[in-house]
Structure formats: C-alpha cells, structure tokens
From TrEMBL:
Entry superkingdom: Bacteria
Keywords: Membrane, Transmembrane, Transmembrane helix
This protein's record includes keyword Membrane: yes
Transmembrane segments: 15-34, 60-80, 87-107, 113-130
Protein name: DoxX-like protein
Organism: Novosphingobium kunmingense
C-alpha cells in the first residue's frame, strides 16, 4: 500500500503551478462578480452604456449562467488545490455557465469576443486537465 508521502511525491510541480494559477485567475473572477453585485456603479463605471444596461437587465438564464461560470470555476480551482476529483464536474458546470452567460451577451450585442474566448479556453483547459489528473491518480 502506498503512503501519503509517496503519492504526494508523484504530483508534478506543473500540476501545482496550474492549480495555483487557476485559483488566482478564478479568485479575480469571483472578486469581479462580487463587485458587480455589491457596487455595480463603481464596478461598471468604465463600461459602455450598452453593457451597463445589459448587466442591469440581463435575462435570468444568462444571469444564472454567469453565476455558474464564476463560482463553478472558483470552486473547481479550490477542489484542484485540495486534489479532489470534484474539480472535474465543477469545471463542467462552469463551462455550461460560461456558454449561457456569453450567449446572453452575444444576443444583446455586448459580447467582448477576445475576452469570451480567453475565458472559455481557460475553463475548458482546467476541465480537461482535471479530467486527466483523475486518470493519472493525482485527484482523488
């Protein structure tokens, strides 16, 4: 039977780098989400009038998607740092949320395509990487 120290020794440094960078990235997203909810005037001061109007009046399904995207990814990153296999489904929920949120923005004509693509790629990568980490026995 393998000891905890032997298992910890097999976790590559690259895993920890990805987990920590992912947590930092998603912590910033969680901060922005909270700021947009707690102090929207300040958080959106530099945004276009169209984007401010969208945030104030977005459809509930897009709003739910935004929350799922942010919090699924944030919790997925925490799960990665704890080496929990639950990271996989949390990132999958986040991907669904990202798609819904960006669809709402696209339909309203306020989608920032380069940012949307970057967010989608990061979350998709974290989902894929966490799946591979389960297969390798890194996530339990």
């Amino acid at each position: 039977m393998e000891t905890v120290n032997e298992t910890a020794a097999r976790v590559p440094t690259s895993y920890w780098a990805i987990a920590v960078v992912g947590l930092l990235w998603n912590s910033f997203g969680a901060y922005l989400y909270l700021m947009a909810r707690l102090d929207p005037d300040t958080a959106l001061a530099a945004a276009s009038p169209a984007l401010r109007d969208y945030v104030a009046n977005q459809p509930i399904w897009a709003n739910v998607g935004y929350g799922l995207g942010i919090w699924g990814s944030f919790l997925g990153s925490i799960a990665m740092t704890l080496r929990s296999r639950h990271a996989v489904w949390l990132f999958a929920v986040s991907l669904l949320g990202v798609i819904l949120s960006h669809l709402g923005q696209a339909l309203a004509g306020v989608l920032d395509a380069p940012l949307a693509i970057t967010i989608f790629v990061v979350v998709a990568f974290l989902w894929f990487y966490s799946r591979k980490s389960v297969e390798q026995g890194i996530l339990r």
